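Pinned message: reference record for Serine acetyltransferase
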Amino acid sequence: MKDIAIYGFGGFGREVACVIQAINEIEPTWNLIGFFDDGHVEGEENRYGKVLGGIDVVNRYPQKLSVVMAIASPCVLQKLTREMVNPNIEFPNIIAPNVLFFDQESVEMGQGNVITYGGRVSCGVKFGDFNLLNGCVSLGHDVQIGSYNMLQPEVRVSGESIIGDSNFFGVRSIILQGIRIGNNTRIGAGSVVIRKTKDGMLYFGNPAKLMKEQ
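Predicted structure (tokens):
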């Protein structure tokens, strides 16, 4: 089994640990050695492992190690991954065993993506890097997703929608067919997006309306 660690000691980090456990129950794949997190004390422990240190420890790690990012803030996620310069670090895609792919061979995926329980990915979907999809997220056909996006539980992205980078989608938000979401946009929980959004803005409601600049 390959050594793996999770960056992020919070609730989402524990959920990712559960996904790793589920993968190992089907086929032993990963040896979870613990967590990294600059906001917690080294040695702090939960039921899945201990904090091994922060990003400085990651960058000094002397051997090959897979790291999963479990950081829900797109801007923080992007900052941290760019600061990880250790050539020994790899960023695998972690996908829960019960994620449903309509046609997995037609899906393109970069590195560091996480899809947790109950996800549904239709045909022709394209992922960049470090996209985090929480429980029961659904992506329609030919959706394109950039990098560093956070999709909270039960987000629905309809077919042919195009999503840029560093966006946050709140719980049960919906993106209708063919909509373009740019960069650094925040979609509030339960919102229904029916038209193209502007970069760096917060949208909320049904239909989603521009609320303010972030």
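Pinned by admin. Summary line: The chain is about 15% helix and 30% strand.
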